Amino acid sequence: MINALESSSTRPYLIRALYEWCTDNGFTPYVAVQVDDTVQVPREYVKNGEIVLNISFDATSSLKLGNDFIEFKARFAGSAREISVPVGRVIAIYARENGQGMAFPAPAPAAADAGNNGDAQPAVPAHTGPARMPLRDASRGTEGDAGKIVHLVTGEDADETVEASPADPVDEPPRPPVGGGSRPSLKRVK
């Protein structure tokens, strides 16, 4: 019997399931990808180290949602491109129309110094991009939790808690309907 440490990742299976759910319900599946050297995408469309790709049937050809890679052909500004994304670099899959989907933990950074023989702690890269907007956890939000903000963090930042004050000039996302058990969803913010 295989234990949990030896089993394969659930990420490719969840990506395929959500892709199928999107297509079955007439939604457009988008994947958000954290870009590095292993990701083959048009670099001119990468912003802040991430790219969002439309992986619908209409936008792609030869789509393969494998256990290790998502591969397809797509047009960018009229030019056909081969796209190859390691499944481990996918940070979210969601429906464009309603934002419902799933976010995944950000991939672990590669060790900066491969010759350290495991003696030193792996280096945590300094955050070089602009600060990210926190995501409100609308699925658990109530009036008493109005100031709670959920951050997706890695490394040393994981112990920090951020409280938002009502005086913050940040645009508040819409609240879920009262009395309904709304489901969590991803919302694309421009």
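The record above closes out task 2.4. Task 2.5 opens with a second protein, given below.
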Amino acid sequence: MPSVVGLLEQHELAARRRVDGLREEADRIQAELAAAELEWQEWAIARRRVDTVLAPDDSATAEAEVTSDPRDAQVQSASADAAKPKSQVPVWRQGLAWSALSADCQRILRTLADRARLRQGPLICQEMAAMFGMDAVPARVEALRSKAKRLVARGWLAEQQPGAASHPALFRAPPVPGPFAAGGRAVR
């Protein structure tokens, strides 16, 4: 009759072997993904270079990057709205177009901007996944949560309560001149 400790060790060994196998597979997939993303970036760079060469003048490229209203980014060309692999989320500043963001981040912003316009409250990531037609499985929800947190950290979104993102348009007020213009501290 096998001992309890021996049975536990057998199950632990089997679980460790399974984890090792899955890690090897994940490493292989990560390497394949990195190669595919590199190829994607190279094609995107090539397309941008061709767009630059074929552009009628130099001002067209500058206008695509910064506009007076972030919502103007929605009407720009499809090439400006194309997803950017491993894209960085720039810090929000007045006049920066939504096209500076990846397609996923633009989708999140557009959804929350629509909710803000309709005076609806913030969304948690599980609700957002359901709205996007995704399965609300932990991996997908975490991916959305990561993007939303990054957008909050860079000033594109507001997080009035933990875990619930909202569009900051309702909360951003124009700067008020005076001694407390720098976030509650006296300016000297």
